[in-house]
Amino acid sequence: MTDIRVDSVSKRYGKHVVLDDINFRIKSGEVVAIIGPSGSGKSTLLRCINYLEPPNSGIIAVGDLQMDCEARPANTDLDRLRRTVGMVFQSFNLFPHLTVLRNVSLAQERVLKRPRKEADERSMELLRRVGLADKSEQYPSRCSGGQQQRIAIARALALDPKAMLFDEPTSALDPELGLEVLTVMRELAETGMTMIVVTHEMRFAENVSDRVIVMADGRIIEHGESAAIMRSPQTARTQQFLHAVRDR
Amino acid sequence: MIDTLSFWREWLPLLLEGLKVSVEVAFASIPIGIFLGLVFALGIQSKSKPLQALTVFVVELGRGTPVLILLQFAYFGLPSAGLALSSYAAAVAALAASTGAYTSEIIRAGLEAVPYGQKEAAIAIGLSRRDQLRDIILPQGLRIAVPPLLGFSILVFQGTSLGFAIALPELISRAYFVGSNTFHYMPIFVLAGLLFAAICVPATLLVSRLEKRLSRYTAS
Amino acid sequence: MAGNFWSILAGVPLTIALTFLAFAVGAIFGFPIWMMRMAKTRPVRLTATGFILAFRSIPPIVWLFLIFFGVGSGDISLSPFISAVIGMGLITAANMAEIYRGAYAGLDIGQTEAATALGIRTYHRFRDVIVPQMLRTALPSAVTFAIGLLKDTSIASLIGVQEVAFQVNALAQRTFTGFDIYVIAALIYVAISLPFAVIARWADLTLRLRVAR
Questions:
Q1: Which of A82, A89, A94 is the closest to C119 by Cβ?
Q2: Where, by residue number, does the polypeptide cross the bilayer (chain B) (predicted)?
């Protein structure tokens, strides 16, 4: 089972505290949405979980892999962590010099040491799953933003991760393009993938995710079942935030 | 080592005299060259097609020809057309021409970097074409061009070393004179190199610092 | 006049060979220098910075004289051509290191992050993701530099490499004329650099279409 555990994780940039004693657990197969005003540390938290930004203290555990944040991470642990946890970025970050197919295949060949033919077959399967098999020989620049983000999801899935992190996956997209990405994410959630999603899409938080974590100023201010938090938030800060985003 | 130091001490005054010539030639050719560059830049943007074509031709020829050939042309070539220049004048003429050709591109890029809204605003408040250029576009465009122009000026200073080929008594000519008389080529050219570095390294670092500072103000 | 013209053209192969070899030396050696320039250890970084500053701040003629007269008059004897290849090659290396650095700085940090998040280790991250994109962004500046290098190879005439500028001066001295000979020389250099510029523009356009987002 691949549970994710975040124990008293903190992150500072110099004196500026970005994450202050963050604690939570996620069970295998759960979908958790992280919401909150900008600058609250949501994205940093996500990037700490796969060590794109190493935290300063605390413990991050994914399955039986446990990272002590005060120690220098071993390369083998980092490799395992990144193989277990996939990541999707706000700005897609597809490799512009590789075709769509090669984007999805690259890590399989370099990390899993799969032969090219096998990797390409698996990539085609994933591209079919996100509805983009016909784009496989195109370059990313020829695809719409929504298509690029679906390719990025396929690319992250190619390592057969046990959990997926999404960093505001629809924020750079027009609403109708965001919708096609959200559809793919909903389908992924239905397959039982463990997912942590930093998002501004309140409907996704309410309808797809099991739980919601609300952050402000580097702390978790509220944490609970999606329906409960979205309908009757307890803290004034959450009420204010939900009010502001829904008024938009 | 001690030998080298005393050798350097012996010949340093002569090299410094040469360095003075290098600096003088650079200081004469850079302003003339940048002025030419501005004229060329405006010529390329001119509405008159023949003028535009002529400027493009002159600039491309100036940029396409090695500076060494320009120098030799000015010194050895012009006399056969009835114009004999001293090595000083020939060096200044050639370096200024080359500077003009290169800086015209730098200045043009600076002028083009001024947002089009500035021109529209100038038209909207009723400025004439000349005043648009003089009061709005040039002051902003030239400011953008300052760091690359300074960077190019360092290259012009280095280019004075080619005055060697036309017997201009600059730094390298002096060093070569010492080398061929004493046969200690290595130490004398090392000293000449250090003198160039003593001026160009700080200048390069200053320009790149200036560049960073200016980009900070224009970026956001 | 026709005969004169041919004697200048005789220098063209050497001009091209010198440009090509010096550029190859520089493009290859520029790579480790760029890597050193980015190294975490301070002494390594400073060595690379010193190399780059020295070869960019001291004019080419000094390096050529240093190598040909200085080094070459010692125990090792170097031909003018080899001296020129070494000198211009090292100057090119310093400049290419800076061009690589600029190209790397221009890369979106998201590219490195995406590769890292996929668990791709440093070596393959550079080989498969960063360097291919860098080479494309570096291409226009590299070609601009190569055209400048072509013209700077004329300086090799001063240590006796019999390339175009050398032939031009020999001819001018033989015939006591100059004006038209130098004009022809200028046109030859323009003519050699023209195909470079055309290819560069074409390559830049096609690559930009591909890499554009």
A1: A82
A2: 25-44, 51-75, 81-102, 144-168, 188-207
